[in-house]
Amino acid sequence: xxxxxxxxxxxxxxxxxxxxxxxxxxxxxxxxxxxxxxxxxxxxxxxxxxxxxxxxxxxxxxxxxxxxxxxxxxxxxxxxxxxxxxxxxxxxxxxxxxxxxxxxxxxxxxxxxxxxxxxxxxxxxxxxxxxxxxxxxxxxxxxxxxxxxxxxxxxxxxxxxxxxxxxxxxxxxxxxxxxxxxxxxxxxxxxxxxxxxxxxxxxxxxxxxxxxxxxxxxxxxxxxxxxxxxxxxxxxxxxxxxxxxx
Length: 246
Prior knowledge:
Layout: E1 6-15, E2 18-27, E3 33-39, H1 47-58, E4 62-66, H2 82-92, H3 97-111, E5 117-126, H4 128-136, E6 142-148, E7 174-180, H5 188-200, E8 205-210, H6 226-244
Parallel strand pairs: 3-4, 3-5, 5-6, 6-7, 7-8
Antiparallel strand pairs: 1-2, 2-4
């Protein structure tokens, strides 16, 4: 049921001695709900990411957005100016794949402690977060992944090493990828490489290509594309509904 009443709170997710700030949104209704991890862009868990987290909760999921820069900075939240982008990329450059996977697994483990959780899990991420959820799709708990314009999947991995694309064979569930054909940060041939890898390893997937720029889903950015955002949101709801409610 869409537009369920929800409650949203700032919480902390423990991962060893690290306390990860996170934004949690969940239906107020009785019952048990699948869990969705929402991964930020380089701009932190800002108002756009909180809004997406709430939108997912209104669809009948427990949604949580962990701060993936917690190891570098606390309370990080910025806008979309060129200076903001430079700062966000500075922290992105300090992340590593093992730490990101550890923090996302800790987030999943936190969700497992909630009494209203139906233990089925999905992930959605945007921009750098799209890259991070492609990584997270290799975690055994993740059954459905929505990867929005994840950059550099074919060319690098956080912290160095073989590109994240080489981990495609380890993806456990279904992956939907959403890309803009006008995106200057993700050449179309890299999207082709992602699609080919998913096909080669027989990972259940769909790749959606919109005539849109980078960041087309975010209504706070100049590159917002309402048509692409609307269609991709319908596809995300289909993905989570089919994989996590069956």
